Amino acid sequence: MSADDGVGLGYWTRWPVLASGAIVLALPAAATAVLLRRRSAEDARLRPSDLWTSCWRCVSPPWLLAYRALVVVVMSSLLVKEVLADGIFSFFFYTQWTFTLVIIYFVIATLISAHGCWIYSKQEVIGKEEANGLLKHDIEDNGPGTLTLKTNNEKARLQSENDQEVNEKRAGTLGYVMQITYQTCGGAVMLTDIVFWCLLVPTSADHFSVNLIAACMHSLNAVFLLLDTALNNLPFPLFRMIYFVFWTFIYVIFQWVLHACGFTWWPYPFMELATPWAPMWYIAVALAHIPCYGSYWLIAKAKKTFSPKFFPDAYTSSY
């Protein structure tokens, strides 16, 4: 193959390609170094119940479960419509990758919320049984029947606490995956929507038109995630940007592998390597990760900082 067809050896040995490759590889290398050295205090303080409870006292776990399940249905419907319209070609774009990742987060969150609601319902039942036992204790005289009732209630309470401890330990790995997915989505949805509305739409209006599905996919992903951020009880540490960097790195490598296999079309103009401006574009996109993730971090930080001040009786948080 010749260098002009975009997939030959001559293409991959051009200086813009080599420089862009060095930039792309430097990002995950730096992120890995940070990951190996950084120990997060937030992870040590995070309780398993924080995965399925809200930071607002008025929002019970079943309501949070209902919201997350609704988001899964709505976003999955949009993705199915997109795939039916464009086929597997849809997944050549970073938008569909990120949109799918947000769906994965809400699926995991829904499963953990459902598990948490089951624990929540058992706690309510035990609480009612203990309240009824105390009421009967006030009415009836002390005797063998009362002692048996108190003993049964105590056994039920201890059994419930043991079951809860075991169940929370089982949800630990999935809960950790949920946290990483959530924090990766935070930066990814900001990057996706900002690039689409602020860069691609104004500069490429002659090449494509924004239909309803495209508009929804580049807005609802952030809207739904921001609403979940407003409701959930999860931390959003700044250093977790490293997972966002890994996510984009995987997508770029995916596109480069396709291109090396003969696929000569780039889904985004700034990914084109056959131009002297390629290293500058890749540096710009790499640097864009900082404000994209940082803006979402500021939103989560603002919720944590100002909610206790303005809503001291309604807001509660464990981190």
Automatic annotation (TrEMBL):
Extent of the signal sequence: none
Keyword set, alphabetical order: Membrane, Transmembrane, Transmembrane helix
PANTHER family: OS02G0130600 PROTEIN-RELATED, PROTEIN ROLLING PROTEIN
Transmembrane segments: 15-37, 58-79, 91-112, 243-268, 280-299
Name of the protein this chain belongs to: Uncharacterized protein
GO cellular component, one term: membrane
Organism of origin: Iris pallida (Sweet iris)
